[in-house]
Write a structure and sequence with these properties.
Layout (H helix, E strand, L loop, with lengths): L2 H48 L7 H11 L10 H17 L5 H14 L2 H13 L3 H14 L5 H7 L5 H12 L6 H7 L5 H11 L5 H12 L1 H13 L2 H4 L4 H22 L1 H4 L10 H12 L4 H9 L7 H14 L4 H10 L3 H11 L3 H7 L5 H13 L4 H9 L3 H14 L5 H9 L2 H7 L17 H25 L9 H45 L4 H4 L8 E7 L6 H8 L7 E8 L5 H9 L2 E3 L12 E6 L6 E6 L4 H11 L4 E5 L3 E3 L3 H6 L11 E8 L4 E3 L2 E4 L6 H23 L10 E5 H6 L17 H15 L7 E10 L5 H21 L10 H35 L4 H29 L5 H13 L4 H18 L13
Parallel strand pairs: 1-2, 1-6, 2-5, 8-12
Antiparallel strand pairs: 3-4, 4-5, 6-11, 7-12, 8-11, 9-10
Length: 961
Amino acid sequence: MELNILILIIIVLFYILFLLIARILLNKFSTLNEIFIRNNRRLSRILSIVNHSYEINLESIKALKDLKQNLILSSEEDAERKKKIYQIEKQEIRKLQSKNVVRRKEAAANLGIIGDSDARAGLEQALLKEKDYSVKVYLVNALTEIRQKDSLPFLIQDLLDSTKWYRTKLISNILEFGYQFNDFFIEMKDTRRLEWIELMIHYAGIVYTDETKKYLFDFVDRFDSIQEEVRLFLQNNKQLLRKYKIEYVEDDMKILLEKACRLLSDTYSSDFGKEPYTSHINRTIRLNAYWAISKNPSVENLQFLLSHISDDLFENQIITMLSKMLESNPRLIYIVEDAFEAENEKAVRSRIANVLSNQIEYYVLQLLTKKYSRAKAILGQIIQNNQVNELIGFINLNKNLDLENSLAELVKENVDPDSETGNELRIYLKKTFLSKCGFIPIEPEQSVKIEKKDPNLIKAVAVTIFISFLLIPIIFLIRHRNELGSVSWINLLTDYVIEFNKGLIYYSLVYSLFNLLLIFFSIQNVKTQARLWNYKNYSMLFRKKMIPSISIIAPAFNESKSIVSSVKSLLNLKYPDYELIVVNDGSKDETLNNLIEAFQLVRTNYRFKTSLVTAPIRGIYRNDSLPNLIVIDKSNSGKADSLNAGINVSRNEYFCCIDSDSLLESDSLLKLASLTLDESRETPALGGNILPINSCKVNNGQIYEIHAPKNVIARFQAVEYIRAFMIGRLGWQQINSMMIISGAFGLFRKDRIIGIGGYLTSKGQYQKDTVGEDMELVVRIGRMLREMKQKFVILYAYNANCWTEVPEDLKSLKNQRYRWQRGLVDILYFHRKILFNKTYGQIGFIAMPYYLIFEMVGPQFEIQGYFLVIVSILLGILNAEFALLLFISVILLGMINSIISLLIIEREESYFSIRDLIRLIWIALIENFGPRQWISLWRVLGQIKMIFRSGGWGSIQRKGI
């Protein structure tokens, strides 16, 4: 290529770079200037609309939308206003027929705001014709916003033959009509369509009339016959039978029976908690009848449940019921005490003691009264049952010596010091008390995560490194074998350097051009997400079952500096249904104590289902005034094991994994989960942005002032993170090839993760640990779903931000990159079956080869190239043409990628000040002159270290939030 052409290309690229930087700065200046103006414009538009004097357009429709979220407007509209919106309305109705999915969703949202009869009619007709369920959700939401009874027949009809995902959301919207549905309920009470039965039961759960009560009781009383009628109806309809499998219908009917029984138990407990339901042959009906009885804590009901405590089928449930009855009416405790003393069977006696285990403090105090003997017997059995969490808490705080002596004697009589209970007491009880018991204290063991060498993996890594470094020289020598004896080694070296430099140029060009392609996809993705987010109002997002319930799981190891701020932040999120589970992974510092003190937590006997094998859980802490906070204390075993423990305890549909030293913006979870509304395909995993919190100002777990990091090392990482998320994640999602969701902020469907065995640990089904648990989990779930031929998409939200502390010293950064690279290599080897395998679609032919070539092998090739560039300079063979090509492919295109990522992140939101943005732009320009090459070297060394060394993974120094 001629030198003049290269110079012209460089000039053009610099011009593009200048335009991009100018665009970023101009956007920033205009954004700052428009913040006040925009708010005032919005106010003036709203006032004008209310006064019917503003010229209606799409902007004013959006302004009206904002108003309708905060004010209730009069439904009376004069002719003048109707005339003004008529043209816009016609245009939006036409857009409902657009081939573009996003345009159809926008039109639905706008017509829902306009809300007159023509808009409603257009939405109803579109609903009948629409095939995309994600568009249907917007249409249904718009009709719900209008809320006219005439729309109900369309919504009810649309339930038929729909998917479960859509049916759940449609039913939620129909229920918003309230009593307007009652006439339809009466007409449909004898239906045998499964979808309508589901609607009827849910309606009966929110509207309490004689008709709904009778419907629920009839459904339970005639469940077997109704289920048979539904089955026969499907068998006689071949078209429906192709959509439903009989066994799926039976599963759905069981779920509906559970729902109906739960409603009867909660709402009509006095009628449901008696014969024939309490002795019904159906287990679900009988269990819920027991629950109905427990809702009325009378002497007779308590005695009834006590008489059934020996039933092995409902052991845990009845214990829970009885415990709740005592909480509601503590005066009934004497009945349980009498039953305990009268019971001779050891197993039943143990169960009755479990009922009383929540009253430990009450019985401890009775050790100083005349009821000493009874209290001692009950406490002894509770201790033998290993229900000692609350006892440990009481003993450690107690200062009464008489009580302490009595308790020490009690513990000595009932506990073997080498038993499981004994070990727990020896770990957690204060040493002065243990000495009175004659027990030797145990210091909690701290496991050190050691890299277990897999010989096959090490061999594969060694071969890869060998090929990466020696393949090209060997090929060169084979190609030039005839010249080996006749050409000097200097000439051969010169030829080799020239040829390798050409290869480096081609490699860099391919890498940069592929990233430019990802940039194109990213920009399209951001545009789409931004448009759709603007049309999701809070009434839509906070409607029941519209977005999934979430359990946030935050593993913590030695996070005492930041843990309280993080938890406060996570307890103040804008989200309709979530719980927070903090997992203390055997911290050596004050992490657990800080949590207990800050949130007044108490150790409790919390029951949960163990779906995944984990390290022992040492205690679960709660505070009744903070019902959505759970703290798990467990033996140290790593982040993956902690996440599995959190999954076991969690109760919701999805779980969100987040680093405990990170802070979420208040609406980040809402923005992330709202993406599920835009996809009718399954969404097993979703991810959001990770941004450095270094130098940001935080108060009570909330970021109130965002700054780019002052530390130069952290600032380089800020640009690196922005580029990775704004270009990489968004681009990969657009082509449905996402393979990484950051462990600092990811959302996963719980049942799918349990189905694949949870996070990889040595205790799990694969008996394998990995340091790249975030990427590995995404790859494994994608692999499983593709093998199942299940349609799915993994999503990424451009505007859902999680702020976390990044390393500020070179040693910590190096340890982090060693860890990342070794995790990548381990994952690529573990899932090598996917590579170039057509079964796995884009992941097999695009994503996995990309990570193999550019992320695993690429750094080794880059380091050789940089070294040979230096050699070529020393040999004087780096001519201007090569130099310019290297500058274009390695430096200039890298700058453009970084600058575009800054443009994308500042496109819809204003994060950084002008000063901070200029600093980040400067870093984006200079990072290719050294830092990028240094990171590549660390990645190579990380792989080499896998072969020759084993040990811990290295630590990262943190200052704390």
